[in-house]
Q: What sequence folds into this?
């Protein structure tokens, strides 16, 4: 497909930011991708909730396996809108990184050029597809966030044509308010900290500032929902739950696990002072930073100890709570069973509570035994 004339080409320069630029781009993309459905024009309507700045790539990216498969299956070769979205860095289907330079001439490929041909390099004409067996699949843990992003953006784009009412600015504020309410008990600072967004920036989202697509993704991720849920689904039907973010793939471009001076200390200091509940373990933090736990200890033994202790305190607190709760339920179960004329044996109590093995715990066993004694005494007395 050839796009003629210099006018379209010029419009790429303005594609970052201004709406008219975005509008031109939408038209261009329609032509490029030969898809005249409403998908691209709906992108425009989305400018209410998605800032166009930073939304689209300046240069092409593609999944070589997708291209190769279409060619092999003699399906039409096109370039899905998904590949134009900057935040999409991987193909979720094939679990590989999108490619951004021609395998033959190594050049990057402009989004719009006069001799664009789907699936081919505009400079040297080389085919951009490649067979599956050239690639090793991305490690799903390390690229969890990137794979998630590709999936949720893909889901949103797929849903676009069928969405009847488009979200407006108030949607972001409303969703954010409930997310903060449900995830961090209404404390916006705590949520901002969790999402790694400067507090003042985060607060501006409640006034009139739109989060960038990358921040919106992080917010959705941290509040345990998809982008589609955050923007579209009826708010009363969504449950927001804290999900700690995995920063590893963001950190990876620092390269070879070598971090800038003071980086690890700063991260650890933040976590040591963090109010996030439940507190993550040092192991989880190592995962978030993208390094080995031993490196954290080596860098800052004191801070590492504080963080570990916070986690251990939390664990012991939790186990106390759990035991107290189990004791209470055992007492109730013994009495309920007894009142029904069933002897509250260990087995019967555990079955009744659907908590197999709960009475094995010493503290719980003592409570159960005490309760049994009381019942036996009552039987004797009557
Ligand atoms: Zn693919
Ligand atoms: Zn090339």
A:
């Amino acid at each position: 497909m050839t796009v003629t004339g210099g006018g379209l080409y010029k419009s790429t320069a303005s594609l970052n930011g201004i709406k008219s630029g975005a509008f031109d781009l939408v038209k261009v993309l329609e032509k490029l991708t030969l898809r005249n459905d409403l998908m691209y024009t709906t992108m425009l309507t989305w400018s209410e909730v998605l800032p166009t700045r930073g939304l689209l790539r300046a240069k092409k990216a593609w999944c070589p396996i997708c291209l190769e498969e279409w060619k092999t299956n003699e399906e039409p070769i096109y370039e899905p809108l998904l590949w134009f979205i900057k935040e999409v860095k991987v193909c979720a289907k094939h679990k590989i990184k999108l490619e951004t330079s021609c395998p033959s001439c190594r050049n990057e490929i402009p989004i719009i050029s006069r001799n664009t041909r789907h699936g081919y390099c505009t400079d040297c004409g080389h085919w951009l597809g490649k067979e599956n067996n050239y690639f090793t699949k991305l490690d799903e843990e390390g690229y969890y966030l990137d794979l998630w992003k590709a999936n949720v953006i893909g889901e949103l784009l797929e849903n676009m044509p069928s969405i009847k009412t488009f979200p407006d600015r108030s949607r972001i504020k409303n969703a954010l308010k409930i997310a903060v309410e449900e995830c961090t008990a209404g404390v916006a600072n705590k949520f901002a900290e969790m999402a790694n967004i400067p507090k003042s920036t985060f607060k501006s989202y409640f006034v009139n500032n739109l989060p960038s697509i990358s921040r919106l993704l992080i917010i959705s991720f941290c509040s345990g929902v998809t982008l589609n849920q955050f923007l579209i689904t009826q708010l009363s039907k969504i449950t927001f739950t804290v999900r700690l973010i995995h920063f590893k793939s963001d950190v990876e471009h620092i390269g070879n696990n070598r971090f800038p001076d003071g980086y690890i200390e700063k991260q650890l200091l933040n976590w040591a002072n963090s109010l996030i509940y439940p507190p993550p373990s040092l192991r989880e933090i190592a995962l978030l930073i993208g390094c080995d736990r031993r490196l954290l200890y080596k860098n800052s033994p004191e801070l590492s100890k504080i963080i570990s202790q916070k986690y251990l305190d939390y664990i012991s607190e939790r186990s106390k709570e759990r035991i107290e709760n189990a004791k209470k339920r055992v007492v109730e179960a013994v009495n309920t069973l007894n009142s029904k004329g069933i002897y509250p044996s260990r087995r019967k109590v555990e079955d009744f509570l659907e908590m197999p093995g709960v009475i094995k715990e010493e503290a719980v066993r003592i409570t159960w035994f005490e309760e049994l004694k009381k019942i036996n005494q009552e039987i004797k007395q009557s």
